Amino acid sequence: MKRPVLTLLTAALAAHAGALTSQAAAEAQARAILPSLSLDDRIGQVSMAHVFRFTEGGRSAPLRADADATFRALRPGTLLNGGGDAPQPNTPRGWADFLGRLDTLGRANNPANLPAVFGTDAVHGVNNVPVATLYPHNLGLGAAFDPALTREVALATAQDMRAMNMGWTFAPVADVGRDPRWGRYYETFGESPWLVADQVEASVDGLQAGGVAATLKHFTGYGLPSLGMDRANAEISTRALHEVFLPPFRAGIHAGALSVMANSGSVNGVPVHSSHALLTDLLRGELGFGGLLVSDWNDIERLITTYRTHTDLVRAAAASVNAGIDVYMVPNSVEAYQSALKEAVQSGLVSEARLAEATLRVLTFKARLGLLDAPLSGSGVLNDHRDLARRAAAATLTLLENPAGTLPIRKGRVLVTGPAMDSAAIQLGGWSVNWQGVGKGNVPDVPKVATLAPALKASAPAGVTVSALPDSKRPQLLTAAKGADVIVVAVGEAPGAESQANNPALSLPDGQITLLRDLLATGKPVVAVLMAGRPLILPTDIQSRLSGLVMAYLPGTQGGAALADALYGRAGFPGRLPFTWPDSLTQMGLWSDRPAEGAGETPLPLYPLGYGLDYTTSVARDLTVTPTRDGVTAQATLTNTGEKAGTVTVLLRASLPASGALQATSRLVGVLRAVLKPGESRAVQVTVSRERLSSWVGDAYGSGTWQLLPGTYTLSAGDGKAPLTLP
C-alpha cells in the first residue's frame, strides 16, 4: 500500500522523537488495511512467533537464508524473544541490525507489507543485553515511593529500546504483591494497591513518552497465588478484586497503556485465559480498556495440558479468543495454533467478526507505534544511564536496624564478606541477561556491575581501611574478623524467576545463616546487607544481635556504589518498606490493609509497611484536609528534626465510614515526601481522588458497587489526624 511521501516523512520524524500516533489516526489506518487481509492473513496477524523461528538452528545465530519463506508461511503479526534468547552478537548494534533485518523481511513478505512488531521483557532496563544499564527491580522502586523516579527509569529504558529497534515491552507488572513467598514478588511494586497504582501509572507514562508500548501484566489476581506458588489458583472475592487487585490496572489504563497481558494462572478455579468475565466484561467493559490483549507464554495450550479444562487446541483456542485474547504468544507451535484457530472460525466456534476485531487491534497497535509508515532505524547506540541507576538504587535503600549507631562507618578496619559482596548475579536478580539471572541457562555473559566490596574499597574515607574475604575461606575469614572493627556481610537470594524463585520458607540458604552466626560469635559489630526480592525471616538469635540491617532489594547495575555511599554516610537511607515484613510464616496474609478480626486481635509484624530508619529524624505536623470537586487535598508540614539532610517520607492513610462489610483499620491513599536539610520544614500536599476513598459495597455473594459513602473520614499522616465529613 503506497502512501504520500509527506506522510512517511511525518511518521518517521514522530517515531524518531518517540511520539505515539493518536488512537483515532491509528485506527483509521488499520481500518483501511483490514479488508485486504484474507482469513489466513488475519490468523497470522494474531499469532506471536519466536524470533528463533527465523535463525539458523533455532538458536542465537544469524538469520536463515530462507527466513523470507518462514514469514510467508506464518504471516506473523508479532514476534518475541524468550528471556536470554538473543541474536549474535548480543550487543546493542547486534540487536538493532537483527531486528532491522526482521522488520525488512516482514515488510517484504507479509501481506499488505505489514511489519511484525517485536515485543520483549524489558522489566528493569533492557535486561537481555549485557551492556545495558539495569535498574532496581520494581520492589526496590516501590521502596523509593517516588513515581517521578520510576517514570525517569521507564523513559531511559524506552530510549535504550528504541535505539535497538525494540518498540514493545512486557512491562510494567501491575500485580499487587500479597504473598512474599511467590517467585515474582520482586517484580511487583509492593502490597498497597493505590501506591502500586501510582508507580504503574508513572511507568506507563515514561515508557510511552519514549515511544515504547507498555504492557500491564498480569490481568488479574496473579499476585495472590495459593501457598505462594507461581501460577497457583487465586481465590478472590469480588470486593477484594475491586479494592485490591484492580486499582493498578485501572491506573495504567488511565495512563494510556497500549497493551495488557493476561494472567497465566486461574481465579476462583477458572483459568484467566478462558475467562470472558475477566478479559471482556471486566477489562474491556468495566475498566474501559481498548488496546491489545496478549496471552502469556503458551497459555492457551496450558488449558489442555495443565488445567485440563479443554479437550483439544481447537476448543481451547476458541475459548481463549472468545474470552478476549487478541494475540497468542505461541512461540514454538505457531502452525498448530493457526490451524486450530482456522478450524474454529470455519466451524463457527469463533466468529469472523471476533477475529476481525482482534486483527484490527493488532493493526491499530502497530499504527500507534508508527510501524505502518516508517521502517525501523535504531542507532544501535545506548546512552550512559549509570548516574540514573545509581540514583535509583540509592533511593531504594532501607535501613531496618542500627541499634548502637554503628552506621555510618567513619573510621577503623572494615571486613567485607558474604556471597553477595561481589556477585552480579545476586545483585541483579532474575530477568538479567537470562530470565533466571546471570550465569543461568544459555547466556555466558556477565554484565559490568558496581558491586559492594570493590565499591567499599574504592571509596573508603580517610581513616577507614577495607579488606574483603569470601565466605568460602572460613578459617581465614574468622581470623580476619577478630581484627576488624566492623564486619559488613552481604547476603541474599540466588537469582531466579517465576516458579524457580519461589521461597516457601522465606529464608536465606542454610550456609548463609551459619556464616552470620559464625561472624556474630566473634563479638564484633556485624552489619548485614540483604539483597533479596522479598522480606526474609532471620532466626531470632541473629536478628536480635545484628549491629545493622540494610534491605537493599535487588539494586541493579550501580547497587554497590549506592550502598557504599550510604554505609559511609555520604548519603542517607531514603527507602521505606513497600510491604509488611512478617516475623514468622504464621503471619502470611498480614497486610497493612487487613481488617480487624472478629476476636479483635491485631498481630504486629516485625516491620510495618512504610518502615525505615535514617541518619536523621523527622516529624509531620499540621495535617489539614480540604474537599475538592474530585476528592480531597491533604497537606502537612514535614520537618527534618535531625542534624543531617534526608528524605522524609510519610504515608497518608484514610479510615472510612462503615460500609456494611469489613474495612481496613486504615487504607493507604497517598504519600507525602520531601528532601530536607537539617532543621528545614516544608508544607507538602497530595490530592486524593474520590475513588481512593470509595468502598465496594455489597453482600458476601452477588454484585456490588463503588460508593463514596456519607459520613466521617479520618485522614492521618504520622501522628497527625484530620477528620473530614462527606455528605
Automatic annotation (TrEMBL):
SUPFAM superfamilies: (Trans)glycosidases, Beta-D-glucan exohydrolase, C-terminal domain. Residues 648-721 form the Fibronectin type III-like domain. GO terms for biological process: glucan catabolic process. Keywords: Glycosidase, Hydrolase, Signal. One of its GO terms (molecular function) is beta-glucosidase activity. It catalyses: Hydrolysis of terminal, non-reducing beta-D-glucosyl residues with release of beta-D-glucose. Its EC number is 3.2.1.21. InterPro entries: Cellulose_Degrad_GH3, Fn3-like, GH, Glyco_hydro_3_C, Glyco_hydro_3_C_sf, Glyco_hydro_3_N, Glyco_hydro_3_N_sf, Ig-like_fold. It comes from the Bacteria. Residues 1-24 form the signal peptide. Belongs to the glycosyl hydrolase 3 family. This is beta-glucosidase.
